[in-house]
Design a protein that fits this description.
This protein is α/β, with parallel strands linked by helices. Among the domains are: about 1-55, no CATH class; about 60-170 and about 195-200, no CATH class; about 370-538, no CATH class. The chain has 13 helices and 29 strands. Helix 10 links the parallel strand 24 (about 395-405) and strand 25. The longest helix is centred in the first third of the chain and has 14 residues, at about 100-115. Mean pLDDT is about 80; it is low at about 1-5.
């Protein structure tokens, strides 16, 4: 009860009102809609006014999942009451696990009944089809809401699809639609083009894993469109036709290349006319080469953010010049990329992900943050750590994510030789080091990987994940147990520079000092443990 009252008083204070101001149902419902569901429901005991406000709130949130208290019959009762008493429904959020054809039928019935309400403005559906050979078809009425401004449908478990519309040319009345989000939802090419051509007020379109078998994807004459994200399958060679979108600012195009022998389309060959207003561009599954970079610089003079999936980059060097760019991400980089040079005076964020760390050079920039994600094999030497130390000098804050394939012998490196070759002391600007091994039973925790890593940096936080295959093995946890708690130091120097260590299992928990009581978390007796460490160095 204390939680409900504190939340209630907090929201009243935000509106500059006293607790006795209970004569505005809309205000009370506004407050309830901003509280967690359980806490909002507990406001019912405050007074009859609050009870009435909660029982007629125009936002329905159904959460029918395994482990949740809400059942199908509870949804039926609530919906019957709303329809019987003609209570307005402005927003409907449904999260449901489809475990039988009965639950699929309930979901279809609820959606069909609610979408007929003329006051409906937003609909969000999150559907998980867990049972094989069970399907769910969204009723055609989902497009009948004249005041509907947002449709979000997400279907998890990609092999089972939720179908949208049973007809190729559905009757579309939702001409006020501003946002369309479909993820894992099957829809016909004709039906989607009818929606896009009828809803001229669309501002945001996200279509992820939903355009299977399309021959052509058309987006035309959407003068208010601000954001467009498309996720297509390269198997079907879908053609793009995008034009007359003068206000488009965010464009993301990801072409899934499932097999290496699939042809990759050059970015220059796409039939798109995005306009010069694009400021955020994300490309995946298309050929990105020097010609692509020249096209980007020419076509998008006001570009501020660029994300490139580099799997199709076939050159050893990546050189890019852009006066307006502020954020740059190069992901999925292969072994052949050895040199990255970026001339960008406004650049403040850089992200790199790949198998090897190239030489990085930013002659003119104002970098504030670097993120590096590497999937390494054990064939790394002192040169890797020297190059990583140079990378850490490029920015004020650095975040590192390291994944190591440990199915082979552990790393063996001469730490004394590394120490003599280092030009800088350990970097203290690493905000977090995340670490995980792959298929390592016990070899890696006896290697000198962390000894070498702590020679080049003293991270503030370490996120230690268990081995992806052997869930009992969390090698960093065992390292902390042996080197810090038990003080069984070998030739490692880094434990002597640790002043204090704190630990927690989840980000939302408070930090606690590392003590012997945490032994069960550190020695592997608790499988699958994720652990956060806060390291304070001398």
């Amino acid at each position: 009860m204390a939680l409900a009252i504190s939340g209630y008083e907090f929201w009243l204070s935000c509106y500059g009102m006293r607790p006795e101001a209970e004569d505005a149902p809309e205000l009370m419902q506004n407050i309830q809609s901003r509280l967690p569901v359980k806490e909002a429901a507990r406001t019912c005991v405050l007074s009859k006014s609050w009870l009435h406000a909660w029982s007629t709130i125009p936002i329905l949130r159904f959460d029918v999942r395994r482990g949740k208290s809400m059942k199908l019959v509870d949804g039926d009762r609530t919906l019957i009451r709303y329809l019987r008493d003609n209570i307005p429904i402005e927003r409907f959020d449904l999260t449901i696990d489809i475990e039988s054809q009965e639950s699929a039928s309930h979901a279809e019935k609820w959606i069909g009944a609610i979408t007929t309400k003329s006051c409906l403005r937003e609909m969000s559906l999150s559907i998980d089809i867990a049972l094989l050979r069970t399907s769910l078809t969204l009723p055609d009425e989902i497009l009948s809401g004249e005041n509907l401004t947002k449709i979000r449908v997400s279907a998890s478990n990609g092999i089972h699809y939720v179908w949208m519309t049973t007809s190729y040319h559905p009757v579309i009345k939702c001409v006020c639609l501003r946002e369309l989000y479909l993820n894992g939802v099957r829809i016909s090419e004709e039906a989607l083009h009818d929606i896009l051509s009828s809803c001229s007020l669309l501002e945001k379109i996200e279509l992820l894993d939903s355009c299977k078998g399309f021959k052509t994807f058309k987006v035309k004459n959407l003068l208010r469109l601000y954001e467009l994200r498309i996720d297509l399958d390269a198997v079907h060679s879908t053609a793009l036709e995008i034009s007359d979108v003068p206000n488009l600012s965010v464009f993301s195009y990801d072409l899934h290349v499932c097999r290496p022998q699939m042809p990759i389309i050059p970015f220059n060959a796409l039939s798109i006319s995005l306009g010069r207003s694009v400021t955020r561009l994300m490309l995946g599954g298309v050929i990105t080469d020097n010609a692509c970079l020249e096209t980007i610089k020419t076509e998008f003079p006001f570009l501020e953010s660029l994300t490139l999936d580099m799997t199709s980059w076939m050159l050893g060097s990546f050189h890019f010049t852009c006066a307006s760019i502020k954020r740059l991400s190069l992901l999925s980089c292969r072994h052949m990329l050895i040199d990255v040079q970026v001339y960008a005076p406004k650049l403040f964020f850089f992200e790199f992900g790949g198998n090897t760390l190239p030489s990085l050079l930013f002659p003119v920039s104002s970098l504030k943050q670097i993120k590096v994600s590497l999937s390494l094999n054990p064939l790394i030497d002192a040169n890797f750590f020297l190059k990583m130390r140079e990378t850490l000098t490029l920015s004020r804050m650095c975040y590192l994510n390291i994944i190591t394939d440990n199915s082979k012998l552990p790393l063996d490196i001469d730490i004394d030789d590394l120490r003599t070759r280092l030009l800088f002391p350990p970097a203290r600007n690493v905000q977090e080091l995340a670490f995980q091994t792959v298929a390592d039973e016990c070899l890696w925790e006896r290697s000198q990987f962390f000894d070498a890593f702590f020679e080049i940096c003293h991270p503030k936080h370490v996120f230690a994940r268990p081995d992806s295959r052997f869930r009992h093995n969390n090698h960093f946890c065992r390292l902390m147990l042996r080197e810090v708690l038990e003080k069984k130091t070998r030739i490692a120097y880094w434990p002597h520079y640790l002043k204090h260590v704190q630990i927690r299992q989840y980000r939302h928990q408070k930090w606690k000092p590392l003590t012997v009581s945490h032994r069960s978390f550190l020695d592997g007796s608790a499988p699958g443990v994720y652990m956060y460490f806060k390291l304070m160095w001398r």
